[in-house]
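TL;DR need structure tokens for one chain.
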Amino acid sequence: MYDRFKDLGIPVVITRTTDKTLNPTDRVNVIKPNITSKDDIVISNHLNAGGGEGQSVTINV
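>> reply
TL;DR here they are.
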């Protein structure tokens, strides 16, 4: 998804590159410094690891 957004010219920020579990409060605290406008959209993309199948995407507007 990152590469596709970049190809489309959409600004992208990766907030985490390791497999680390964050509680909801910590997740928001990591994201907040990257929000620069009330029009920003946050997409949380999770690829299931450890034998899971599929993926889940959460979009917060």
